[in-house]
Amino acid sequence: MRRYADYYGTELCQKSWIMTEMESLYSERKGCGSSLRRWNDDQFYSCIRPLSNYTNVKNQNWSQWSCDTGVSGVVPHRSDPKNIYQPHLEIYQPVSTRTVDHILREGKEMIFSIADLIVSPTLFFETEEKTAFYQDTEGREHEKRETQHTVSVLVQGKSNRASTTFSFRSMTDLDWQSLCGELNSQLQTQAERPKRSVNHSSIILTEQGTEELLKALGNLFISDYMDTNVPVLWQKQGKRIASPALTLTDCAHLPKLLRSSSFDDEGALCKDIALIKNGVFNEALHSLSSSTRHKQMANGRAFRKNYQTMPKIQYTNLKVEEGSHSTEELITRNPSGFLLNRSYGGHIRGGKLVFGAEGWRIHNNTLVERLTQVQIEAPLFQMLRSIDPATDGYSNTLGRGFISPSLYVENVSVIY
Question: Cα 249–250–254 angle (5° rounding)?
């Protein structure tokens, strides 16, 4: 690779690569052009000029590019005291397991001092590492590794819960005192809210209301998730774990859906997978490594988020086969319950699926009250055993890949 000085001249190469950023655009067909972007004090200047040929790029008198004809805009000041002329690039700071245990123990003791907690707080620590490359003003490529740590905290009060997540790169940035204040504020805010009604009732999930349930089921049958969280589920393979009316398929080849794919990022063929067939746990989602570990066939479900990450097992398009009753028949069969047409914020906690929803309250087979903030809680496997799909109400969300008719679910907790 040529030195930057060969292209831009020694004048600009003497400037800091943090303060001056340049790029050259060259093509034999389209001619040539260059742009110069410069930070001066708190102002950002940009200038773009067309050049007739490659020779003009190399011999350009860059010192005359004052950017006075360019566009200027205000760049916000940095909030930290670091010197922008000498940036801190040593951001790879891995930590040992012993250090993590010590930090979590310290945080748990501090958080447990919050008044009205009935159980010890739950803490999760996660680290993500990635490698990035950058180039200095002389064209030399350098490698830097980045580490991002994330701490998630969940606390249980006498009548409410609170949770928070904090991401940081250096352990010195972790402020347990601030996290305690945020959790305490959430608990107090929830305690001051008026009491909400809790019903144990049946629900009908229709349109986008089925999404959170399908997400939970898709994640449940990822083999790596099963190994870590529900290893006993492997013993249920080939046995009935859900309602005989439920058939759930991960379809990798549905046309016009964004998640459809012929091959995964490990080169394995993507197959259509019947996760649950007539209520029976049929097959899990595998990568090459997990299929070898469990002595099963790989089914092409290892995908990357980007080129820097390792492939992880993911579902593609989840489809529920239709049942034998229409949505209207389900409402008639359900004289008092809830019809929910939107769901959001779903997660599994302690074996329970919890998600928010919007919809209607049903009374005497009639939609009588519009509800905008409903919370649904139920043991996930209990929901599986009581699901009854309808023949209509299909929701096909192209960006998310969930295809399902309306779903009737019995005996769940509805908080509104």
Answer: 105
User: Using CA atoms, how far apart are residues 25 and 276, in angstroms rounded to an integer?
Assistant: 54
Residue reference for tokens 């950017």: 67
User: In this structure, what DSSP letter does residue 139 have?
Assistant: S
pLDDT in tens, 232-266: 999 999 999 999 999 999 999 888 787 888 999 99
Residue 275: which of 241, 302, 229, 304 has the closest Cα? 241
Distance CA 145, CA 356 (A): 38
Extended strands (E) in 209-351: 248-251, 273-277, 280-281, 302-303, 312-313, 317-320, 336-349
Phi, psi angles (nearest 5°) of residue 228: -85, -40
The Cα-based distances of 342 to 31, 51, 217, 307 in angstroms read 53, 55, 17, 34
- What tokens appear for 70 in the block? 């360019």
From the centroid of its chain, how far is CA 62? 45
Q: Which among 102, 108, 95 is positioned nearest to 176, based on CA atoms?
A: 108
Q: What are phi and psi of 288, to 5 degrees?
A: -65, -45
Locate tokens 């909030």: which residue? 79
pTM of this prediction?
0.58
CA 96, 97, 99 angle in degrees (round to 5)? Answer: 65
